């Protein structure tokens, strides 16, 4: 029962941050319309979100176990509550930058804490993988919900900033999450008394010297580069390439989140019978095929008025389905990596995961934004084929290294 309360606290925290973090695509579109910023300027919001995630994860991942995961989670949620209240009052582009910077800092703390807590409440590699996939699945449900929550606050007047009132609702959800975490009996982890914070930080850095970890972080970086490049710019792609209204563009983007959620839930069952390496390679091949089939359909579309999601062209439904195929990659490689380490090293490893995931997210969004601005939306999405090809190679190397670690552990 005690573990169930902790799991609930982790799940709700992830649900909240899924809405906040993945709203960046909608906010980019709204910032362009409401505040008149360029696509390149709007793309900087991804950096304001991801760079703090990387910096904070790198600096505090090894320190969080010392203050306790509960205290860390409550501090992160407090920061989010304050910024969600400030943003609609300020009503400016700089306020959105500050909000995403705060959310990024808070999520770095939350992700390190949640991943470490998963190791504490599970007792086997199989249960660890199962719970991790469940938590990541809840995250994707939050992403899906976020599209519709934000869409409910959008209006036909694209220049109006009334849509910022959504952050009052999110402040209320943050407060409820704070109370749930506060009520959970999350114990402070037992640490080696001989280890200082400096030693803990050095141990985290030493992880990067392991070949398995190095190949893993490259794989994670490339995956998030693809996911954020597509997910962040999909609302703008729908609006400016497919010529859909703003609200319809955002609503159809939720298919991407739904596909990710469904893909992770299905993968949990498929991976019980299929080797993870074969499965992930099939997924990558499917992603590339979908891109090559869908993007030509976005050319020379008929100028038919679109008033609802049912009037949208077929391409608007097909492109987001890439999420179904990419969904299993991230949780699978994370679980394999964490399961190969001792539990006391999970927080440090998670810090590295978050750092490189954040860097990948920022890189993917910025590249997509600049290509979108100076070439076209089609060119921007065709660019995703390059990291898909590279990640096929890194997965091969990751599999070889993981097998070598498993053999040496058995000996």
From TrEMBL:
Q: Which residues cross the membrane?
A: 47-64, 71-93, 99-118, 130-154, 166-186, 207-226, 246-267, 274-295, 315-338, 350-374, 380-398
Q: What is this protein called?
A: MFS transporter
> Pfam families in the record, alphabetically?
MFS_1
Name the GO cellular-component terms.
plasma membrane
Record keyword Hydrolase present = no
Where does this protein reside within or beyond the cell? Cell inner membrane
Write out the entry's keywords from A to Z. Cell membrane, Membrane, Transmembrane, Transmembrane helix
Its lineage reads:
Bacteria, Pseudomonadati, Pseudomonadota, Gammaproteobacteria, Alteromonadales
